[in-house]
Write a structure and sequence with these properties.
Helix content is 36%, strand content 22%. The protein has 266 residues and is an alpha/beta fold. InterPro entries: Actin, ATPase_NBD.
Length: 266
């Protein structure tokens, strides 16, 4: 296949570019095409609008989607019907030769060179916490909460008494097997447009340390451009899809239909 296109979808922005780029070459506000974002809490809610946004993305990339496989991020806890609709649109509307969906937290962790850890994505209107073991998101331990606003550092730690970011991380990790917890506490990565607050990494390290087991080492990592971490991880992950035959091919889609995504993308 030719060079993959990597697309990271979130409520506020789409980040896209050809694989092997240093940064996404297209950053598009999701409400700039139709006046209203077709994505809420990182889940597509308006497919007609979403198609128009992706059309604009391909135009700005000056790329014909029939010539490039697409690696696309998806949110944790993405509804099954949305997963299936995504690849249906990619194959039937855009005619892509292949595609793959990866949970955004897995890609964020991959951008730091890791496959086991706890990814925390903070976007415009949602916080997602995704514990990951050897590249696989642990679905039973994933947590998500909506954000009414995210304009101060304190707002992240006081979303509600139940759902502040520290408690979400602790709860997600504690839901995992005991033997995994120490590796997860020492490999927490923070990503997303909503994480660009000075001092977030340091405060999160301290607050999680306060609630973690006394014998656990807490380490939090964040890049200088956390809004690009998911895309960067996808850029690094894309070669694996060729190497290990992970792409959903057109032939597989024609044979099994949209449900093939549930067999090949975890």
């Amino acid at each position: 296949m030719t060079t993959p296109i990597v697309i990271h979808n979130e409520s506020g922005y789409i980040r896209a570019g050809l694989s092997s780029g240093d940064t996404p070459s297209v950053i598009l506000k999701t409400d700039s095409v139709t006046g209203k974002s077709p994505i809420e809490k990182n889940v597509v809610t308006d497919w007609e609008g979403m198609v128009k946004v992706w059309e604009r993305v391909f135009d700005e990339l000056d790329a014909n989607p029939t010539e490039h496989p697409i690696l696309m991020s998806q949110p944790p806890l993405n509804p099954k019907l949305n997963r299936e609709k995504t690849i249906q649109v990619l194959f039937e509307t855009f005619g892509v030769p292949g595609c793959y969906l990866s949970i955004d937290g897995v890609l964020a962790l991959y951008s730091f060179g890791g496959t086991t850890g706890c990814a925390v994505n903070i976007d415009q209107d949602v916080i997602n916490v995704v514990p990951i073991y050897q590249g696989y998101a642990l679905h039973h331990a994933m947590l998500s909460t909506g954000l009414d606003r995210c304009d101060t550092l304190d707002s992240l730690f006081g979303v509600t008494i139940k759902d502040n970011i520290r408690d979400m991380i602790y709860t997600g990790i504690i839901k995992c097997d005991v033997e995994l917890r120490y590796d997860l506490f020492k490999n927490i990565v923070v990503a997303g447009h909503g994480s660009k607050f000075p001092g977030l990494r340091e405060r999160l390290t301290q607050e999680v340390t306060d609630v973690a087991p006394a014998t656990a080492t807490v380490k939090v990592e964040q890049s200088d451009q956390p809004e690009n971490s998911v895309w960067n991880g996808g850029d690094q992950f894309a070669p694996n899809l060729d190497q290990y035959g992970m792409w959903i091919s057109r032939a597989e889609y024609d044979k099994d239909g949209p449900r093939v995504v549930n067999r090949k993308c975890f």
